[in-house]
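Example complex used in Figure S2.
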Amino acid sequence: MKQLLSKADPYRPFKIEILERRQEVKDTFTLKLDVPLKHDPGQFVQLSIPGIGECPISISSYSSSFLELTIHEIGMVTNTLSKLKKGDTIFVRGPYGKGYPMKETKGKNLVLIGGGCGVAPLKGVVSYLDKHRHDYGTIDLFFGYRSPEHILFKDEMPTWKELYKLNVSVDKAPTGGCYTGNVGFITQLLEKSQLSPQRNAAMLCGPPVMMKFCIDILQKKGFHEDQIYISAERLMYCAFGECCHCMIKGKFTCLDGPVFRYDQIKEDLNEEH
Amino acid sequence: MAVYVLKKGDLEKFLLFLGKQGELIAPVKKDEVRFEPLKDPTDLYLDEQTYIPAKQYFFPQEQVLFTFQDDMIIPVVAPIKKRIFFGLRRCDLAAIQHQDIAFGEHNDPHYKKLRKSTILIGYQCTKKLHHWCFCGSMDLPDFYDLMFFEQEHHYQIDVGSAQGETLLKKSKLCRKTVVRISKEQKIVPDTNLLQRKDLGKHYSSKAWDSLVKKCISCAACTTLCPTCYCHEIKDDVPVSLKEVQRKRTWSSCQLKEFSGVAGNYTFRESRSSRFKHRIFHQLQYFREKHGVDLCVGCGRCIKHCPPRIDFIKVINKL
Ligand SMILES: Cc1cc2nc3c(=O)[nH]c(=O)nc-3n(C[C@H](O)[C@H](O)[C@H](O)COP(=O)(O)OP(=O)(O)OC[C@H]3O[C@@H](n4cnc5c(N)ncnc54)[C@H](O)[C@@H]3O)c2cc1C
Ligand code: SF4
Ligand code: SF4
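Predicted assembly (591 residues):
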């Protein structure tokens, strides 16, 4: 296991080969890379293509032999990344940031709540839990997507159903389609659930509005702010606290986050606007 | 440390001597006053604060970090000649020290490379250079190889480092004196304008609103600030298509795109939140992390702000 961090130049990335490219859904794909990266779930890497640019991507796997990144096509870099195939090379540096508190929450029950592409880093957490299942109590997964066509990681879902309490919902489903699962915002499933705040910790990743509503529900169920961990997304370039783009008031998303304990970032988020 | 004396009439000779020791860079007046290579000692211009600070020499507006050639990363190796800066004010010097902290924290080799072989020679202001100088509020350190203190017929030169003293001795134009520089000499009169305080509690204060509303997001403040160091990374493909350059360029927290993420979502969407972010980074966040304010009180960001937003007034009222 290694880290792709250059002592001589923190901006210098490393050339890595793509082992596999999987289309997850229409606009989202996963790259499996030939690097056993030492990292924590929730950390991210900087991925780049020379001449196109660099962007931060969360690690969606937890393995000692490869690294997986699940990427949503949204602009220059991510669209170009989507055109790469097995055997091509890309540039990677990392890991960066603070991930989810897997050690601190050992022995507890966990709730993982993800929306859309925000499920990707949580999949890294789930892969970690697969390997450390006995260290934790009950594990509830709440994953929400826009439509049945947007559901990520369908191949993993049978295993997740066996090991964890898996809840999946889509905002909208076409009438007459073959989708038979839950329809409605993921908040509705969360609200209906029998979650107890006792010995529990919640890990969230998703669009800011979705996280806000989920936090409200968790608090109504008795969760304290220090039991809730959220992953923040900010524009960033250096990923090590120098370019200053990702500052949330005085905190750096790339160094102090992207995963923050809610009570430690709440006021900053509220005041930022 | 030791103090030397140089006769006023010998300044030109001294500058000529410096020009032989390395590239001499000092304030000159062209379209604007700026730090430029000093070809002729009579071009030296010390009557105004430079419009553009010395920052670009260490943290250029655009810098190639490395290039990609056929998927290989090639570091940029350009020999950096020795550079001697003359005429840096106390604020200019402190600004360099604060950027040393910002880039030093990450052991940034691209900054270090340009910063390495420099000699910093300061020139103490005897009166404020413009209305908004507030260096007197900022507890600026002694950070120089040499510092000139103007007297009626001569300069007292305070030695700040061994390489500074070596230079003075080599020039054979200066003599050592037993006189010491007093504390008063280091302070510019009437520049204690800002009441420094813990701004942490005052982010949401209404006091900001009326003044800050006038900001037009032109980014003059961050561009001319000697300490602002926010930047972005971009790839550039020259027409030859031979090599890709990965570049670092300045960016401004006053612009909306500074913190936009996918999905058309912008953090700090309002101008006032961006204005406050700049002031808080300069006068609160940097201190929380590094124990010293980033701002050095040069006042450029007030003097050159088109609507002239004087945040000193706001902070003093908080
Ligand atoms: C810590 C972190 C983890 C992330 N993890 C993932 C992930 O696992 N999967 C995924 O698909 N995306 C992830 N993102 C978002 C991803 O970095 C951006 O979508 C990507 O940078 C867009 O780059 P682009 O060149 O394709 O788009 P551009 O053409 O540059 O722009 C498209 C949009 O993305 C925004 N954007 C551009 N650069 C960044 C940036 N560096 N950070 C954030 N937003 C940016 C722009 O403001 C614009 O709105 C993560 C972002 C962060 C900060
Ligand atoms: S110079 Fe003045 S108007 Fe321009 S961005 Fe800065 S504060 Fe706003
Ligand atoms: S914030 Fe303004 S006064 Fe402070 S160093 Fe920058 S330009 Fe000078």
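Chain B has nine helices and 14 strands. Chain B has a mean pLDDT of 93.
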